[in-house]
Fold:
Amino acid sequence: MKGRKLVSGSGILAVAVMMALPIGTSFLCNGNSVTSVNIAGVIDEEIPLLSVPDVKPLSRGNICLSGDNLQDDYQPAIAIDANGNIFVAWTYYIDQFESNIAMTYSIDGGETWAEVRMWDIEGIESYPDLCFMQSTGVIWGVFSHLSVEMDTMGFFMIPDVEDPTTWEAHRWLFDDDEDVTATCVGYFRDVSLQGCISHMTYAGYDIEGCLTLGLCEPPDYNSLHHFWDAQTGKCRTAPAFHYSIGGTDNYAHIAADWLNDTTNKYQVVWKKVDPTLPDGEPDKDIEYTQWQEYIPGGDYDQMCPDIATSGNNVYIAYMANNNVFGDWDIYCYYSNDEGETWQESPIIVSSPGNQQYPAIATDGTNVYCLYVEDGDVYFTMSRDGAVTWEDPKKINDQDGSVAEEWRNVALAGGSILWTDNRNDNQDIFFDVAYGAPIFAITKISGGFGVTAQIKNLGTVNAENVEWSITFDGPVFIGKEKSGTIDIPAGGEATIKSGFIFGIGPATVTVNVGGTTKTASCFVLGPLVLGVK
Structure:
C-alpha cells in the first residue's frame, strides 16, 4: 500500500510537521486567505483575491461572462449551491508563462452577474473544477498550478458565494510531481475528493500520466491523503489523459481514459473506493480496490469520460468512434447500484459527423448532457435514468463559435457554460438550456417537528418534485418523511416533517429535487430546538 499525507499550514509562515503515517510521508502545504498567502517553509508571498474591472459580464443573447477583455478565457466550471446561487470559474490566460483562475457568480438564476475576481498566483493556473458539497454547504474548487518552484494542485473553498471575504485558496506543496493537469473535484459525505493527472516521480516512481486521488477531510480540511495508481492493480491506467470524479453517500467514483500500449487504443476505466476504510485497506486505494473495470469495447477508441452521481446512480458519458466512418459518437455507461451492474445507452449517434467532449450532470431526477459538434454546443436530457435521451437542442446563437476541445463545456442542471470564439478570442458564455426550476431551501426552522421553506428561482413551474426531511441522531419516531410538491416559477412552498419524537443532538437534512441543506438541532420529545 502506498500513499502520502500532505498537511496545510495557515497564517504567516505557519509550519506543520507530522510523524510519518502508515500510508506514507508527511509534506507541507500552504494556506492563503483572501488577502494574502504564506507558503509554509517554501514561499513567502501575497496572493490577493483581485477584482478585475476590465472583465465585466455582458448580456448579448448568450451571456458573455468574460466581457470585452482581449485575453483568452477557457475551461469553464460551474456549481449551484443550496440557495440556488450559480458560481462559475474558468482559466484566464495572460501569456505563455501566466494564467489565473477567474470567478463570478449570479444570485438570480443567471439574469445578472457579479464582478469578476481571480486568484492572482504567479505561474500557470488552469483546469478549474467545482462541486457543491451538500453536507457542508461549501463550494469546492480545484486547479492545476505550474511554476518554476513546483508543479502542484491547488484548491479553494467558497462557504458563502455572496461574500468574497469568506473565500480562501491553498496549494498543496508536493514538489516531486510534474506536468499536473486534468484537476477534478467531487465529494463523499463531508470529504472533498481532489484528483489530477501528473508525471509521478515520488519515492522512486517514474509514471507519466499517473492518476491520483486525494481525500481532504474534516474538521479542518488541512490534510490530504494522496493515493495514486502505480500500475500494479487489476486495471492499468497510465498514461491517462482525461479524468473525472464523483461521489455518493457510500463511495467515491472515478472515470478516466488511458492509452493501451498493447492495442494502441484509448479505453475508459471506472473505479470506486470506500474513503471510510482505515488507512492500508485495499478498497481505499484506487490502485488496489476490488471495484474497477474497463468499459467494454473493441478495436476502437473511447475517450473524454465525464462522471455524475446521485444516490446509488452512476453515469459516465464518453465519446467513442465505433462505427464504419470512424467518427465520434456520445454514449452513457450507467449503473443504478453503485457499479455492481452496468448498462449502456447511446446519447447521440449520428454519422457521418463528430459529436465530442461530453459533460454530464444529474439533479437526482433527470440526467443532463452537453456535447460539441461542428463548432456548436448541444444539450440533451434523460427523464428515465439515462435509458433514453431527448432530441438535442443547440445552445449557442452564432453558428460554429464553440471551441472544440475537452473541458470547454460545463453544466449544472439546465445552466450551461462554454468557451466561445465569436469575438475573435476565446470567451466564457452562459445560457440556460430550457426553462428550468432552480430550488433554494431558504429556511429550516424547528418547533413541533421541522419546517422548511422552499423557493423556485427558475423560470418554469416545478411539478411532482420529490422531497424528504431526514434526521440523523436519536430520533425514534418520524426519522424520515418524504413526498412530492408543486412549486410555481418564482413561488414558494413549505414542507414539514410532521410528528417526531426523540432526545438529544441531531442533524436534519432537507432534500428538494436534489438540492439539499443540512442543519444542526436538539430534539426534546416532539420539539426541535436550536436549529442552525
